[in-house]
Every structure is written in C-alpha cells, then in structure tokens.
Amino acid sequence: MPAFIDAHVHLVMAGLSLDQVDLGAVDGRRAFERTIADAAARLDREDPSRTRWIEAWGWSAERWAAEGGADPDRTWFAAAGSRPAIAWRMDRHACVLNDAAIAAVERRHPGLPVFPGGAVRRDAAGRPTGLLVEANAWRQAQPEVPAPDAPRRRAAVRAAARHLHHFGVATVGAMEYAREVREAILPEAATLPLRVRLTLLDRDWPIDPSLAARLNEEIEALGPRAAAWTKVIGFKAFADGTLGLRTARMLEPYLDAAPSRGMLVELALDGHLDAWARLVHASGLSPAIHAIGDEALRRSLDAYASLDADAGVAAPPRIEHAQTLDRGDLPRVRGRMLSMQPLHRVEDALVAPRALGEARLAGFFAFRSLQEAGAILAFGSDWPIVAPDAIEAVRSAVTARIADGRVFRPQESITPQAALLAHTRDAARCLGLASTGMLREGLDADLVVLDRDPISAEWLDSPPRVLATIVGGEAVFDPHGVLA
Description:
Blueprint: E1 4-9, H1 11-17, E2 21-22, H2 29-46, E3 54-59, E4 85-89, E5 94-97, H3 99-108, E6 118-122, E7 128-134, H4 135-141, H5 150-166, E8 169-176, H6 178-185, E9 195-200, H7 210-220, H8 224-229, E10 230-238, H9 266-270, H10 273-282, E11 286-291, H11 294-304, E12 318-321, E13 337-340, H12 342-348, H13 352-356, H14 367-372, E14 376-379, H15 390-399, H16 416-422, H17 425-430, E15 447-450, E16 466-471, E17 474-477
Parallel strand pairs: 1-8, 2-3, 3-4, 8-9, 9-10, 10-11, 11-12, 12-13, 13-14
Antiparallel strand pairs: 4-5, 5-7, 6-7, 15-16, 16-17
C-alpha cells in the first residue's frame, strides 16, 4: 500500500530524543528517581566536569495516579547532585528542573517571573517547585539548556529518518525553527531518504513570511533532488496548551480545576491570531494553528473563516490537534483540514472524563462526527510526544482502545479505510503533496509492505505489521528480506 505520511512531527527534536533519558515507562516517584540516578551515574563517567545537563522527557503524572498523581518537583532529582537536570512532560508543554537548573535559569530571570501564557508552580512558602508551564518552559528554561552542536543535530535528522522507516513512514510534515532547518535539515536534504514538508515555528509578531521563500531558495540551490524532496510550506502558531496540563483553552471551566478554563497563549493571547493567519495565507503559505481546547478550536475556525483553503497556497490552512470541540461548531469544519494524532487520544482519554465531564466528551476526539461533518482528517504522531507508529495510530482510530486497555467511546471510531486514507492520501493533501500518498502510475514509489490486508485485518488484537518500507523506489527498511 502507499507508505505512511506523518503529518506532524518535530524531526530534529525527535532525533535528539532517541539519545535522551526516556521517562515514558516511569510509573511513580521511585521509578523516576531510579531512572535519573542511572542517567547521572552514566554522565558522571562520561563528563566528570559535570557541565552536561541531564535531559529527560516523557513523564506524565497520569501514569502514577495510584500514588496520588502529583507532578514531579526539584526534590525528585537528588541523584543528579549539582548537575543541572531538566525533564519534559510527555507533551513538551511543561518541564521540571532541579536546583542546579533553577539556579541557571534564575541567573537570567531572577525570581522566575511568570511570562504571559505561562506559569511557575510554587510551594506553600512561595518557592519554585521546579515545574515551569507553557511559555515559562519554552522561553525561560529551554534557552538555558546547552544546545547540541550542528553535527549532532544533523546526525539526529538521519537517525530520525531511519526510525520513521521502521514504521513505514516515507514523508513527514516537520515543525521546525528556521535555525534548525538551516543547520540540521538542509545539509542532509540532498541525500536524506525522507520527504520533508516544513512548517516554521518562528512566530514572533510580526512574522516575516519571506523567511520561507529564502529557505526554499536555499533548498533549491542544493539541486533538483533536494528541491523535490524538501520544501517549506507554512508557519505554525499556538492558541493554547494541552489537556493533560489543563492549559488547553476551554469554553467552560475544567471540572477538576475550576474556575480555570485553561489559557490562551502567544498570538491568541495577544489578539494577533487572525492577522497572523491572513498574513501567512496571503503569502501563499499554509497557516497551522495548535488548538486543543474547544475555545481554541473555535478561535482557530474564526481566524480561518475568510480564508479560501484552495487559493493557490502551498498547502491548505490547518488546525493541529483539534482534540475537543463544541458540537455547535461541527458545521464550521466542512472542508477544513484537521491534522490529528490518534495516539494522543490513547493517553488523554484517561483524564478527559474527570477534566471535561460526560457532556463534553461528545466533542472529544470526535473522528467520526468530524468526518461526517465534512472535515478532512490528516493523521500524524507529534513525535517525539508519542511514537511515530502509524499502525498503532490507525488501530486507535479504528478500535477506540486507550492506554488502560478499555475501549473508550467507540461511537467515534472510523473504518480502517478512512483511517488509512488519513495517514496517506489525506495527509499528503494536508502537506500540499500531489505526487505521493496513493498507488497510481506516475506517482512517487513510496510504499509499505504489510504482513496482511489492512482492510480486513482484526485491528483490536491482530493489527498488521510493517515488513518493509520503500521510498522513491528504493528499499530503506527490509529486515526480513521480503524485497530480496
């Protein structure tokens, strides 16, 4: 069948994460501390000067709900000693720092002031716990972490491509900063066996849309192969946060965090989202808005209301995630591109009932309702937030199985054919690609070989397996020799 297309990854970050401390399987404080201790011991051998940070990611307090579900704090890093340490939540919208890392951040930001669209958690005495949320995580903490050099980031891009091939993925929509595009992706573009459609994360207002054109000129200068496989197609903005942190912006308060309705962030908070969308679109580019809460989704639909999805742009306007919506907004999604991640549902369904309540679950990951209302669904992973496992994503959308093994709201499941199209043909449309995503003479030979028919497979208990991946007519993954 056509190779899978992942409409939403963070290519450089994902490649780097393959070598970072993985907290995804951690189920409580004891396991968290043990994992950090192992990482600290390894780094002490490799870096006796103690200048390298411990970088970890993937934790979620939902996984240790039996212990009370408390978020980690600076005291969980005792084994790191004086070595700075940072651990990102699974959604990368919050991080927790140890004392050494807090001190490093406070040298530039004394007292850890709260940024607009952010938060700093503090204990009863007013001291920072180490947990920074949204803008404070991105704009205070992240800049203090020593950045890997360009060769390491280039190697991360190659490693990411190899990892994606294991899952049958031949094309990605990558969300990257312009610096990463220039320093890590462009140097690999002439030979990387992965088709990459880039959306720029640079979003300081006012943005410079010509940045995309300049990058595309640099790509074209690398030769026809790079120009055919790699292209900048748009810009991305954030309207809100995430459900797990209760920072996704809702129309009504969270049941378990009232009176909070979450937060608007960045351009949505500043009132520039509509103007940003018009500027990007008028430049012939695709605006992509991160919107998880139902109010954020409504504001995104408002921003796109006057935009023609097919008006000569590189790719259509997109809403990223669209995890919750008010059912009254269903008629407004007709013809709109919704870039969704079924594997986010696997985790977020654990918290949705107590966060949203039964009535609002009708708009939670409403795949079938959205499809019936005329929305175009394009599937992806948001890797490294979750694994770029297209088979598991299709399985989630088809079966409605979630992390604890339950089947959750199966009335919003879709057919295998619809889910596969969302990860192939419609993901190609989302990224402005006309030459891939289907099996047709004259199109790119991007193929995946499965061990059984995906339409008739029993997806709940026996989903298909990827046996081989072909990109541009060349085998890039064939561990069993099925293509020999």
